[in-house]
Amino acid sequence: MVPTSYYLVLSAVLFGLGVVAFVFKRNIITIFMSIELMLNAVNLAFVAFSRALGQLQGQVFVFFVIVVAAAEAAVGLAIIIVIARNRGTLDVERVDSLKH
Amino acid sequence: MPVLTYLWILPLLPLLGAAVNGIFGRSWNKSIVSAVSLSSTTLAFIAAVELVREFMALPADQIPWTRTYFPWISAGGFRADFALQVDQLTVVMLLVVTGVGWLIHIYSTGYMHDDPGYYRFFSYLNLFMFFMLLLVLAANYLVMFVGWEGVGLCSYLLIGFFFLKQSATNAGNKAFWVNRIGDFGFILGVLLIFRTFGTLDFATVLPKAAAMPAEPVGQSGVLTTIALLLFVGAAGKSAQLPLYVWLPDAMEGPTPVSALIHAATMVTAGVYMVARSHAIFLNAPFAMQVVAFVGCVTALFAATIGLVQTDIKKVLAYSTVSQLGYMFLACGVGAFSAGVFHLMTHAFFKGLLFLAAGSVIHAMGGEQDMRKMGGLRKKIPWTFWTMLMATLAIAGTPGFSGFFSKDEILLAAQRVNTPLWALGVLTAGLTSFYMFRLLFLTFFGAQRFDEHHVHVHESPRSMLMPLVVLAILAVGGGWMAAPLLWGKANYFAEFLSPIFVANQEAPAAAAESAGGAGLLQALLGAPVIAGLVGFFFAWWFYIRSPETPRKLAASLAALYKLLYGKYFIDELYAAAIVRPLVWISDNILWHVVDEGVIDGTVNGVARVSRESGDRLRQASTGNIRTYAAWILMGVVVFTSLLLWMVG
Amino acid sequence: MQQTFILTVLTFLPVAGTLALLLLRSDDHLWIRRLALITAVAEFAISLLLLRGFEAGATGYQFEEFRAWIPQPPIHYHLGVDGLSLFLVLLTTLLTPLSILASWKSIDQRAKGFFISLLVLETGVIGVFVSLDLFLFFLFWEVMLIPMYFLIGIWGHERRIYAALKFVLYTMFGSILMLVAILWLYRITATAGYPTFDVAQIQMMLSNGTLTMPLRTEMLLFGAFFLAFAIKVPLFPLHTWLPDAHTEAPTAGSVMLAGVLLKMGTYGMLRFCLPLFPEASRRFAPEIAVLAIIGIIYGALVAMVQVDLKRLVAYSSVSHLGFVVLGIFAFHAISIQGAVYQMLSHGISTGALFLGVGMLYDRRHTHLIKEFGGLATPMPVIAALYLFACFASAGLPMLNGFVGEFLILAGTFQKHAAWASWAALGVIFSAVYLLWSYQRVFFGSITQDKNGALPDADWRERGILFLMAAVILWMGIGSTFITRRTEAATQTIMQLMQRPRAYDAGGSNNMDHPAMPVNGANAAASGGVANLVNSK
Amino acid sequence: MTPQIAVFLVLAAMAVAGAVNLILQRHPIHSALSLIVVMVALAGLYLLQGAEFIAAVQIIVYGGAIMVLFVFVIMLLNAGEEERTNLSRMARYVGVPLGVVFLLEVAYWIGRATSHMAQSSPQAVSTRELSTLLFREYVFPFELTSFLILIAILGALVLARREDSD
Amino acid sequence: MLPPLQDLYRIAPEIVLGAFGMLVMFLAPIIPKSRHGVLSAISLVGAALALAATRFTALYPGAAYSGLFRADAFSLFVHLIVIGVAFLAILGSTNYLKREDLDAGEFCALILFATAGMGVMAGAQELLTGFIGLEMSSIASYILASYRREAPKSNEAAMKYFLLGSFATAFFLYGIALVYGATGTTHLDLMGQAGAQTSATLLKMGLGLIFVGLAFKVAAAPFQLWTPDVYEGAPAPVTAMLSTGPKAAAFALALRILANVDAAGPLWFWALWAVAVMSMFAGNLGAIVQTNLKRMLAYSSIAHAGYILVALAAAAATDHPEAGIAAALFYLVSYALVKLGAFLIVAHLGGVGERNVEIEDFTGLARRQPAMAACLSLFLLSLLGLPVLAGFLGKFYVFNAALESNLIWLAILLALNSVIGAYYYLRVMVAMYMREPSKPIATEPVPWTLAVVLWITAAGTIYAGLFPTRIIGFAAKAAVNMR
Fold it and tell me: pLDDT, tens digit, for every residue of C93-127?
């Protein structure tokens, strides 16, 4: 039997790596991918809790999260395309005309 | 008893004159203005005379005769009515004020005839009469203060009458400011009176004060404090050390003003006030000593300055300061009636001196420097003769009014304090010297002016008439107090005796020492001798050998310079008080404290806010990774806090 | 009590006037002025009715109006005047038409906005003086800032924007803390079981011991209220907004500012600080008195060296208001009466000074003393009346300034001779700065050609100045007309000051007799919201 | 060590390695591929826990749809290697260390807090039960997700549309 | 098995909004662009009907859909705010869309969908439902922010909003997962009862992360940095909507959690306190130095979030959170009215391409367009908290709540911040009234649609300031019936 805490620690690690990736990466798409990584980590936690609690709800939540992720992906990638079109760069640090 | 019943008429008459002239006079021609002004003062004088007549008929229990008109200030247990009262002291003052005032009004019609501010002058003069009458008629300290400040106001207005002249307006300001310093004391004194007695009415305060035990010297009691505070006020108004500085400058005003306000009436208000408050002073021996000392020193001090002044009016001004010192000396030694008596005679002869000086100046076309006069005796005989009478009077020539009043003061002083007496005598000699110096320089010797430029002429009759009347008074005015010398009643003192009833030690002492009549004579002789000596020196210096003064001045250069520079008191005040105060106010208080510290703090807060806002917005770099880092920081801090701290 | 509406009318008539003004075309300056003047004069006339109906000597508030407004927290539309506020209202209604007259010609830009601001300002100020509900009071207190902000900021002089912002921010800083204190006070009343913002009611509850608060609380509350008022007064060292605001404001603004707005601070101290927080007032009194005395002397000294005439008058206000604060915190019936009187007389005499300065400004477009000199020759009437105002301000007896100053000194001297003695120094300095500036402006020969041909006062200006002079003289002589009517209010304040110390335990046995019918009186402190819901 | 744990460890190592690789790779396409590795590993973990349906969805939707979209966009935009800009000192010196701190902290606390949690045996959850739950109890959010998709479509429509389309 | 009909009544506004959103969406390609006004009109009808539909929720209060959603006075109140905002935003933006040559159809549809999402947040009684609502409104907002798609600033705003929003959402979601793990449920009411199986650590961390997600949404410091950029870059009418509706909805969700989950109050209190203070200072101090009016208003909304958070802190600090909740709700109303009006004015006066949104460009506005200047002044003064206007009463109630919970320091800090705030609001008025314009700016006539919106918001601001009785009474009722 794999203890629940293993899953959860893994989920925490993946979430944390997602966070690090968000701050560390510069390409907008990669940053967006790090968000997907974080969402995946959350999903893992939901499933683990779901199993630990002996409930099904957690899995339903995962379903919803995936849908949300899909919707976000559609919109996010559209925004990225527009940015790339208008600015010709995907480096997030070059998209900083709004400041101070 | 029309006037006593309608007492308000007396001050109201000049007020009406002032108001009418002030409002309409600008467009009227001068004859109407002078008619209004003269008629109001004439009527006031007539009313005053009538009042005296009625007053004499009053039974003793109706004195003081008090009339309360309306509550003036009334709040929270404090009450001061607009009330007037008449008693013997008031009567004396009334006559002096209205009489001399009337004469000077007449004189002014001639003197001011060519001035464009004619209406203004008479309006102010009448207003002054109003306030002066209020001052002497007041039934409580607050109404007295109204008059007190009012005459100060008029003094300010009249000194600065020639407002195009910088020096005149400076002098006006100085007069008002120095008087305000005095008023500071006066007001505090009044406040302390109220605190002590719960009222400001003379009728209540003075008997209560008289009933209080005398406070020994060296132990500061409430009465002493009151008396000293009041005396500060008196010193301001009556130009005593150290507040005398305004009076010489006040000569910037037209000469009739100098005569009326700065010689005869207003400056004596301090003396009047001290005399009025004698009940307080008598129970405050320390204050009495202070008054006497200050009076005596002022008398001497001003006289020394008067020795060397060359401006005819300045000499008279310092003389006035000196004579006022005599009056305070009298009050300080308890001889209030003598003080008041000298006040009255001084009003006559000093008024006359000023008017005569005005006549001289008038004749000289505005020249005031005695070094540019000389030999005027023949050209303006009326002026000369009247002025001679006045000089004789002030010098203390036996038989003239000044003799009686001054000797009475010195006599009283001798009884209390011999050094004061000695100083008084010395002053008498100096007085005689500078007055005769003035007379000699002006009327005798060679003409030191260019007759082609200056057309010397005698003054018009409107100016001469007052001179003559005052000359008569200056000569004969002293006799009503005279008989003491010959063992008979002193009418004047007797008349005032109901007022100064608490002050019977002086006559009692006189009776005690009646045995030593010879000594008395000798003492009385001393001032006369001093006067003669003064006369002699003046004669020697200015008639006999006119070179002497210059030599003497050269040999005693330092002293001469000190005296000629009036001991540099003005300069001292300027350097020690005025300029530091202005400098501190300007550079420290305004620019450093106000603009630097306080506003600096306020603006500093604004700047700090702006700058921290600027810092804060620097956090907003536009770089999304930065934002993410901030969010992360928030997350870590909050989760850590929640996990480690809370719960 | 007979229900009247006079105070409501009085408060909102100017606003009604502004609505009428809004209908006019904005370039129709003549009718804009006329309408504004008519409104203000009508207002003054109504305020005279107030004076006529006022019962001298009666304690409590008169012409009271009481209506529920906001149920939760219970806020009432409660108006009323007593002797304290009566004359402040009259002062306001008197100065407003004069300000309008003074602006008759000098405001030729955006006149509509100007007169609207002025009238709204009048509403705000009157509202402050007649409000008996803390919330309502605060409301008017804040509302009045904006028209003043506009008056300074739009029609002011060179540094007007700085001055306007400074004025508003300074005031707001104090008043927002007062709002916190007001609410805190409300919490205390709610805890006691009678939640209310009503001043009269709180006073009553405090005096009969229904309401108690710990001393620390009292002191904090006092501090918050006092700070707001002290800034408004302004008390040293919170005064630096005043010279800027005065200097930069147009004449009417300065007149209203000095004439009535500053009085709101001292009024607040009398109405709130003393009766609501007597013990704290007593404890802080020495410090406050020292500040007041510093203000008196400091203001005078700084005024002395000013080069700008308006700034000079502004600093003189610091000095004069120092007297008022001193009088208030001497806690003596005489000095408080004096303070009330001084508030009024300062309004008149400083108003007159500002009107005079404004007339000079209209002619020369400067306030700098050195630009003037010798003006008495071309304009004797203005010179004479300005001098009159100077002397009134310097406290010459028989003019208005003396009565107040003397009463303050007299009352203060009864208790604290030293305070009064220091304060009396101000009497000297006031003469110095006023006469010195007068000399430099009006006396001497004309030094600048431009000044030689300046016209003297026209009929409008003469009217204004003579009216002010008449009031000055009347207030100097007939002071009892006013003091008779302010006496009862002063006594009330003194009585409220005397109340048993509320935090002496055992004072709260009067619960059976609540002071007044309270709306929702039994609403519990924290269940107030729930209570409201249930009542719906 | 039970086989499950061994499988877990392998999959976990895969996931972590993928995540780390995502960070380390400079070309977005490599990062995307790393992310796919993570997802696949996670799908395995779901299976390990008996969440078969979720595992399937994970592969189909995430790996199949979303990540393909990513790759497609990367290709479309011709995204090259990540530039080595480092304009945000805040992110570099504060953000990244904080991220690591956050990782450790959360992992530590969660590990500690859940160590006692009951270990239910993996029982395959029937899709029927799951759908009953989804369409009965959670029908409301389910319907809402349809709006979500609608919004996403609308967004893609609005944003990615060329200007000259109309 | 269909859910009972009442459940449909309880979500009637969402149904109406969704239906009209779809209707507009489908009509958009059909109707030629020149007549897109029709779409706005239809959307307005939709919003109006949704407002009307709230009546159903009032008639059938209670939980719907197995307790995931709850129709009560609170959700009604928030619904009225967000739908009202939508209505006014659509009405106020019609002319803007025409001017900027943007499609009205999608715009309106997105606003309606977003509003539906906010409505869900307002009524959510379960975290995941709330999350879905949040995502609906967020994703729609991301798109709207980028609606001027050829404007680089607009794209940039959208990108920042999107990436950071998703980042924060991930935290929020992780928080939900942890709370779920800790309590075994995501139902707020059940969570409140859950005691035994609660794992303190997980709950704490979970609630902490949920807090972060919500704090991001309401633009509270230190999660606020996106706000100025997004508000500046997004089209002004969108900013008007963004700064009001989603904020209200996020606060609603926070309040729900606060009121229902007993553990949340004590856990959140210090966080709320600190975040409130930081937001007030960050917003106000940052706003002082702004030269761009849009950006300044963005900073000001950070500060106002801080003020509302004071009310939340007051609610968290006591067992009787009613006063705090009521204060927050009232404040939201007053704030929404004002911010909406202000941003719409900026949208209009900014001119084509929003080029004139520097404060400098507003100089002399009082001469050019006195009515607009007066209106903007009114809004600014309300934001400043001047009596007689709604903003003052909002602050008043917040103060009251803070003092009721004995948060004196917080009240004082709030007071100080009001003064700092006054400075920059007045500075705008300085520009409008007291300065001469530096460059000539063409005056555009005010379209009637905008005029209507401004009339409504201005009148509302004054009404709420003078006669708050009904609103505060309603808010109080909402606060009481929350659990």
Answer: 999 999 999 988 888 888 888 999 999 999 999 99
Q: Residue B631 is nearest to which of E168, E228, E288, comparing CB atoms? A: E168
Tell me, yes or no, whether C87 and C4 share the same domain: yes
- Structural domain containing residue E362: 5-480
Overall pTM surpassing 0.95 (yes/no):
no
Q: Which residues of chain E have pLDDT under 50?
A: 196
Closest in E146, E156, E170 to A98, CB measured: E156
Is A99 part of any domain? no
**pLDDT above 70 for B327:** yes
Q: Are residues D161 and D104 in the same domain?
A: no
Q: What pLDDT does B620 receive?
A: 85
The residue type of C236 is: F
- Do D135 and D78 share a structural domain? yes
Q: How many separate domains does chain A show? A: 1
Please state the domain count of chain D: 2
Phi and psi at residue C392, in whole multiples of 5°?
Answer: -60, -45
**Which residues is C67 bridged to in the sheet?**
C77
User: Is A93 inside a domain boundary?
Assistant: no
CB < 8 Å to B636, chain D:
98, 101-102, 105
CATH number of the domain enclosing A8: 1.10.287.3510
CA-based nearest residue to C232, from C321, C138, C339: C321
Spell out which residues of chain D touch residue A11, defining contact as CB-CB under 8 Å: 110
Q: Do D23 and D92 have their domain in common? A: no
Res B202 pLDDT > 60: yes
Q: Are D86 and A84 in contact (CB under 8 A)?
A: no
More confident residue, C501 or C43: C43
Model confidence pLDDT, tens digit, residues E88-120? 999 999 999 988 888 888 999 999 999 999 999
Q: Pick from C227, C209, C253: which is nearest to C117 by CA?
A: C253
B116 in contact with C, Cβ within 8 Å: no
Tokens of B384: 């000369």
pLDDT band at C517 (very low <50, low <70, confident <90, very high): very low
What single DSSP character describes residue C133? B
Same domain assignment for residues D112 and D156: no
Examine the domain organization and report whether C252 and C354 are in the same domain. Answer: no
Question: Which domain range does residue D106 map to?
Answer: 86-117
For residue A64, the enclosing domain spans 4-87
Let me know whether D24 and D105 are in one domain: no
- CB of B32 closer than 8 Å to CB of B42: no
pLDDT at residue E315, rounded to an integer? 92
Of B621, B629, B643, the CB nearest to D98: B629
- Full residue range of the structural domain in which residue C318 is found: 284-498+519-528
Q: Chain B partners of D100 at a C-beta cutoff of 8 Å?
A: none
What percentage of chain C carries pLDDT values higher than 90? Answer: 53
* Domain count across chain C: 2
SS3 of C81, please? Answer: strand
B582 lies within 8 A of chain C by CB: yes
* pLDDT > 70 in chain C, percent: 92
Give how far B250 is from chain E: nearest CA, Å.
51
Nearest CB neighbour to C530, from listed E418, E469, E480: E480
Judge if D104 and D129 occupy the same domain. Answer: no
**Measured between alpha carbons, how far is A72 from A51 in angstroms, rounded to an integer?**
27
Identify whether the C-beta of residue E169 lies closer than 8 Å to the C-beta of residue A38: no
- State yes or no: pLDDT of B470 exceeds 70: yes
User: What does the alpha-carbon distance between residue E450 and residue E257 come to, in Å, rounded to a whole number?
Assistant: 37
Using DSSP, state whether C79 is helix, strand or coil: strand
CB pairs under 8 A between A and E: 108
Place of tokens 């002191």: C219
**Chains contacting A (3+ CB pairs below 8 angstroms):** B, D, E
CB contact under 8 A, B622 and A98: yes
- Residue contact A28–E157, C-beta within 8 A: no
Say whether residue A95 is in contact with chain B using an 8 A CB cutoff.
yes
CB contact under 8 A, B629 and A23: yes
